[in-house]
């Protein structure tokens, strides 16, 4: 309660008006999108009709949820510039890989979800296991988003946590049920611009508070230390750094296992690409998203470090504020009325973007991968459309329950990365083997995925009980991800060699070939323009991300 009272924001009529107008626009977009929802494909995948610039902005906005803003700002306050690893090595290469390599196989197979690809490649058992794991993960991650918004509502109105979670969940439920995925995606495009417009003033005023860029650097050197402004300093074996990880765990754990596991198999992201109007647009979706993604640290991580300088006791044991409170604290003390309303609206937008992404992917996977094939097959399309809307409500209610799990973490990004190591990393290992190795079998896919999920959970329990000593939660998550990937592969390969694979005739379009990876699909006018070539966009993003590392590498 002390923390809640201390975070109370002084909103006036202008701030509240901005917030009300935003909510009205969001519901208006949902009502407009409702007219295009005629069947289940429209509801779950927007009829595969959206242009690349829309799906690209929605792709990055779906990730730019309240968990990203509050969580990565918390990471900034706790770990400093080491947090940029989550953007540069921890996002851009995997997003490029998705667009250049994996998207043709997802899109051309006409699957409605990531688990459905495993049904075509393997068997019903692998399909059901992956669908169930993804449904659980979606609900848990939705709970993180709900808790993140509850922090904002507590600061705004002083509401207790249960009331904040309930009100927030009902609003998101309304606009997804009304307009389906189209409503979520078009709102995510709006939310992207609102979020950026809200966070830029906070960053500028935060820098002014600590004396500009020069004062910021001097304050960091005098306080947390110069290593707080480096990305690779102190990451040698046996060296200490705030992140508690070395260059190998950063590169393989975060840069490969966590990153590729999240960006290539997390259906909340892939679903945006599958909604594109053709294969060219689907491939460009994550590539377009990669460019704004690499600059997000300037308006998310930087304010987190500034919060640590302004409030040195943040995140300390027994202190009044958690690392999660970094952004609300800066909003309270730095923003004038009017700008404060825009910032609160930006946080609301970020919450709804993240929550909508997870709930819309949950209703798709449950309906198309569990309900349709195993519980009620062969029903009219209208039946699955109704089920999708009902399951949306179920997902929001379940997310309300799991929000209280997130409330037990002082840094919600630590919790979120833990979930990724449990669910996304083993799924990625199974996908890589399935896509690039024809000898991979259905039984190998099932047992590898099962073992790869159990292994990181077991390791995490050992870490939390003190059996395995690791300096930080994020360091433990990186090691956990490496274990998940390694165990999945170690179990899958011998099982595959001992069991019979599918014949080549059943693997067409499901296993990597150069021709399939380079397939352009049906192109629309303008798709062949040089600036829309996926290879140029992808390699351009890689080079630019490498250049972004330079200021933090010396």
Automatic annotation (TrEMBL):
<keyword id="KW-0472">Membrane</keyword>
<feature type="transmembrane region" description="Helical">
    <location>
        <begin position="16"/>
        <end position="33"/>
    </location>
</feature>
<feature type="transmembrane region" description="Helical">
    <location>
        <begin position="128"/>
        <end position="153"/>
    </location>
</feature>
<feature type="transmembrane region" description="Helical">
    <location>
        <begin position="535"/>
        <end position="552"/>
    </location>
</feature>
<feature type="transmembrane region" description="Helical">
    <location>
        <begin position="387"/>
        <end position="409"/>
    </location>
</feature>
<dbReference type="InterPro" id="IPR001734">
    <property type="entry name" value="Na/solute_symporter"/>
</dbReference>
<feature type="transmembrane region" description="Helical">
    <location>
        <begin position="339"/>
        <end position="366"/>
    </location>
</feature>
<feature type="transmembrane region" description="Helical">
    <location>
        <begin position="86"/>
        <end position="107"/>
    </location>
</feature>
<keyword id="KW-1133">Transmembrane helix</keyword>
<feature type="transmembrane region" description="Helical">
    <location>
        <begin position="286"/>
        <end position="311"/>
    </location>
</feature>
<feature type="transmembrane region" description="Helical">
    <location>
        <begin position="245"/>
        <end position="265"/>
    </location>
</feature>
<dbReference type="Pfam" id="PF00474">
    <property type="entry name" value="SSF"/>
</dbReference>
<dbReference type="GO" id="GO:0005412">
    <property type="term" value="F:D-glucose:sodium symporter activity"/>
</dbReference>
<dbReference type="GO" id="GO:0005886">
    <property type="term" value="C:plasma membrane"/>
</dbReference>
<feature type="transmembrane region" description="Helical">
    <location>
        <begin position="444"/>
        <end position="463"/>
    </location>
</feature>
<feature type="transmembrane region" description="Helical">
    <location>
        <begin position="475"/>
        <end position="498"/>
    </location>
</feature>
<keyword id="KW-0812">Transmembrane</keyword>
<feature type="transmembrane region" description="Helical">
    <location>
        <begin position="415"/>
        <end position="437"/>
    </location>
</feature>
<protein>
    <submittedName>
        <fullName>SSS family solute:Na+ symporter</fullName>
    </submittedName>
</protein>
<feature type="transmembrane region" description="Helical">
    <location>
        <begin position="53"/>
        <end position="74"/>
    </location>
</feature>
<comment type="similarity">
    <text>Belongs to the sodium:solute symporter (SSF) (TC 2.A.21) family.</text>
</comment>
<feature type="transmembrane region" description="Helical">
    <location>
        <begin position="190"/>
        <end position="217"/>
    </location>
</feature>
<dbReference type="InterPro" id="IPR038377">
    <property type="entry name" value="Na/Glc_symporter_sf"/>
</dbReference>
<feature type="transmembrane region" description="Helical">
    <location>
        <begin position="159"/>
        <end position="178"/>
    </location>
</feature>
């Amino acid at each position: 309660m002390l923390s809640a009272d201390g975070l109370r924001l002084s909103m006036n009529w202008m701030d509240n008006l901005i917030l009300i107008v935003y909510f009205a626009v969001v519901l208006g977009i949902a009502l407009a999108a409702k007219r295009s929802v005629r069947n289940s494909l429209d509801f779950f995948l927007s009829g595969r009709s959206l242009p690349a610039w829309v799906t690209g902005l929605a792709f990055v906005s779906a990730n730019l949820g309240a968990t990203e803003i509050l969580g990565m700002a918390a990471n900034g306050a706790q770990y400093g510039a080491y947090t940029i690893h989550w953007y540069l090595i921890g996002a851009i290469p995997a997003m490029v890989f998705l667009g250049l390599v994996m998207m043709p196989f997802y899109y051309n197979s006409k699957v409605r979800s990531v688990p459905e690809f495993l049904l075509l490649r393997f068997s019903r058992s692998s399909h059901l296991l992956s669908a169930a794991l993804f449904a659980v993960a979606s609900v848990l991650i939705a709970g993180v988003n709900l808790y993140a918004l509850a922090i904002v509502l507590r600061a705004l109105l002083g509401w207790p946590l249960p009331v904040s979670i309930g009100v927030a969940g009902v609003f998101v439920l309304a606009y997804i049920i009304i307009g389906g995925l189209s409503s979520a995606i078009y709102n995510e495009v709006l939310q992207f611009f609102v979020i950026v417009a809200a966070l830029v003033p906070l960053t500028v005023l935060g820098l002014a508070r600590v004396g500009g860029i020069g004062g910021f650097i001097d304050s960091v050197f005098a306080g947390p230390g110069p290593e707080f402004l480096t990305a690779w300093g102190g990451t040698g074996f046996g060296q200490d750094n705030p992140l508690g990880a070395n260059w190998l765990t950063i590169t393989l754990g975060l840069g490969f296992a966590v990153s590729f596991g999240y960006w290539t198999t997390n259906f909340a992201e892939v679903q945006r690409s599958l909604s594109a109007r053709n294969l060219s647009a689907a491939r460009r979706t994550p590539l377009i998203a990669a460019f704004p993604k690499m600059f997000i640290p300037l308006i998310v991580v930087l304010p987190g470090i500034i919060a640590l300088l302004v409030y040195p006791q943040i995140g300390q044991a027994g202190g009044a504020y958690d690392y999660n409170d970094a952004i609300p604290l800066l909003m309270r003390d730095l923003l004038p009325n009017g700008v404060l309303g825009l910032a609160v609206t930006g946080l609301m937008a970020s919450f709804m973007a993240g929550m909508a992404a997870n709930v819309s992917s949950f209703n798709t996977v449950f309906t198309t991968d569990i309900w349709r094939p195993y519980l009620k097959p062969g029903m009219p399309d209208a039946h699955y459309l109704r089920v999708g809307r009902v399951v949306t409500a179920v997902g929001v209610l379940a997310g309300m329950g799991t929000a209280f799990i997130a409330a037990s973490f002082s840094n919600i990004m630590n919790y979120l990365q833990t979930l990724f190591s449990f669910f996304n990393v083993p799924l990625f290992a199974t996908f890589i083997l399935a896509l690039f190795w024809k000898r991979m079998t259905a039984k190998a896919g099932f047992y590898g995925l099962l073992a790869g999920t159990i292994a990181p959970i077991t390791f995490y329990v050992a870490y939390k009980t003190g059996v395995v000593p690791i300096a930080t939660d994020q360091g433990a998550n990186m090691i956990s991800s490496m274990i998940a990937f390694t165990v999945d592969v170690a179990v899958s390969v011998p099982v595959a060699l001992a069991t019979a694979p599918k014949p080549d005739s059943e693997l067409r379009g499901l296993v990597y070939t150069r021709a399939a990876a380079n397939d352009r699909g049906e192109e629309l006018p303008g798709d062949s323009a040089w600036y829309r070539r996926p290879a140029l966009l992808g390699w351009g993003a890689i080079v630019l991300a490498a250049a972004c590392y330079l200021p933090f590498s010396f």
